[in-house]
Amino acid sequence: MSKKQTKEVFYLKKISRQFSGGITIEIATASICLGDKILISGPSGCGKSTMLGMLSLALKPDRGKIFLCDKVDILEKWKRNKRDDLAMLRAALFGFIPQTAGLIPFLTIQENILMPQGLIGKKDQDWFLYLVHRLEINTILSHKPHQVSVGQRQRVAVARALINHPLIVLADEPTASVHPSLADGILELLIETIQETGAALIMTSHDTKRTLQYGLTEFPCEMDPQNQITRLYL
Predict the structure, then answer these.
(1) What is the C-alpha to C-alpha distance for residues 153 and 57, in angstroms, rounded to an integer?
(2) Which residues form a coiled coil (predicted)?
(3) Which residues pair with 232 in a beta bridge?
(4) Is the pTM higher than 0.85?
(5) Is residue 228 assigned to a domain?
(6) If both were cysteines, with which of 25, 58, 72, 102 could 47 make a disulfide (CB 3.0 to 4.6 Å apart)?
(7) Cβ–Cβ < 8 Å for 99, 51
(8) Do the beta carbons of residue 11 and residue 32 sit within 8 Å?
(9) Which are the contacts of 205, defined by CB distance < 8 A and separation ≥ 6?
(10) Nearest Cα to 70, choosing from 37, 34, 116?
(11) Pick from 96, 61, 92, 104: which is nearest to 204 by CA?
(12) Residue 40, in any domain of the structure
């Protein structure tokens, strides 16, 4: 990815991880800046979710370099088993949207959204109210996840991902579990809200035609079945 004049928040160099079946996932050198909107594309099973796992600090790469905000050496924290530090960085600087919303079933919608703030001892009621109105979920805050629609649950996941003003939002197939008629609405709200916050967005999808309509830059996974490697060049 070419160097930009905007603030770099994430730098990585040749990170890789071997996962199930002996397949190795590799991500080449990348500089990710505020405002970037990146689409990682590829067929199901190629390792896109593993890539997001490494980028979200949830999965330890086997090798490589990752620096957050110029100076935080992520691989060094993994080597020193600083899992609490990694968890705090995830909560403070990252927002994550899983494929199926991933809401906690026994919490209300409001409690699900505010949970990341509780993890870092932060409160921002004005931002919370803005998000729930912007995403049109303000009328379901007292409901449990099973009491709302799939599309509403995905909107809740977007609000939860943005509640701590993250620098980086990671979205793993955010419309995979919804009907195509709902997919455009969710993508539109996600992209517009991301643009308003100025965060970087890294999304995975195999529905590239739909997703690229919203101004993302596509980076396809390159599969090398002979050597059992999936490579991504950012």
Answers:
(1) 24
(2) none
(3) 27
(4) yes
(5) yes
(6) 25
(7) no
(8) yes
(9) 39, 40, 41, 173, 174, 175, 176, 211
(10) 34
(11) 96
(12) yes
Residues forming a β-bridge with 10: 32, 68
CB 175 within 8 A of CB 97: no
CATH code of the domain in which 154 resides: 3.40.50.300
Return per-residue pLDDT of the chain as tens, 234 residues: 444 457 888 999 999 998 867 889 999 888 999 999 999 998 887 888 889 999 999 999 999 999 998 789 999 999 999 999 999 899 889 999 988 889 999 999 999 999 999 888 888 999 999 999 988 899 999 999 999 998 899 999 999 999 999 999 999 988 887 778 778 888 888 898 888 889 999 999 878 889 999 999 999 999 888 888 999 988
Contact (CB, 8 A) for 39 and 212: yes
Q: What domain range is 180 assigned to?
A: 8-232
- For 168-230, the DSSP string reads EEEEESTTTTS-HHHHHHHHHHHHHHHHHHT-EEEEEES-HHHHGGGSPEEEE-EEETTTTEE
* Overall domain count for the chain: 1
Asked if residue 2 is part of any domain, the answer here is: no
Residue 1 in any domain: the answer is no
Please answer whether residues 202 and 55 qualify as being in contact, where contact means their C-beta atoms are separated by less than 8 angstroms: yes
Instruction: Count H helices and E strands in the chain, helices first.
Output: 8, 12
